[in-house]
Amino acid sequence: MVAVADGRRVAESGSEGTDVREPTVVAADYFQSYSVVGLLAVVGVLFVAVAFGAGRLLRPVVPTPEKLLTYECGVDPVGEGWAHTQVRYYVYAFLYVIFAVDSIFLFPWATVYAAPGYGATTLVEMFIFLGFLAVGLLYAYKKGVLAWT
């Protein structure tokens, strides 16, 4: 026999402690948590839209030829605005971001590694992860990306 209390079905005989929730209750809880996130996103978008709208309405708009000039650190623009930038600077920035993000993964690994029951598995997974990083670094070294010339 099954008793229903507070939207939960609980078996009375045989299996004590079983707690099976109705599918509609589970779905309502699931969508309620996402509705809070959605409401927060809508409030955030409205806040930004109101701020930009107020700025557009309240600012003075008086365009002059001096205001329409390109301004770079107080120096008058000379020549064209197009400048060549070497791609290696982007490669260094990209490598830095990769290794900075990867180093962030090492901190949770250290805390999980200290937890009982996770030691060997976590250690093997992290060495596989570090192996992929080493292969990427070796590839960048072989391609000559790390040579500053």
Name the descriptors.
149 residues; single chain; 3 helices; 59% helix; flat; 3 strands; mainly alpha
Question: How does this model look, in words?
Answer:
- With 149 residues, this protein is mainly alpha-helical.
- The protein contains 3 helices and 3 strands; from the N terminus they run βββααα.
- The chain has helices at 23-58, 87-114, 119-142; strands at 2-5, 8-11, 20-21.
- A hairpin with an 8-residue loop joins β2 (8-11) and β3.
- It is flat.
- The chain starts with a strand and ends in a 7-residue tail after the last helix.
The amount of beta strand, in percent, is: 5-15%
Helix-strand category: mainly alpha
Unreliable stretches covering 5 or more consecutive residues? none
Biggest beta sheet attributes: 3 strands, antiparallel
Helix content: 55-70%
How many helical elements? 3
Overall mean pLDDT stands at 76
Whole-Å distance between the termini? 80 Å
Biggest sheet: strands side by side, in what order?
1-2-3
Task: Write the element-wise H/E pattern from the N-terminal end onward.
Answer: EEEHHH
Task: Calculate Rg over CA atoms.
Answer: 29 Å
Outline type: flat
Report the count of strand segments.
Answer: 3
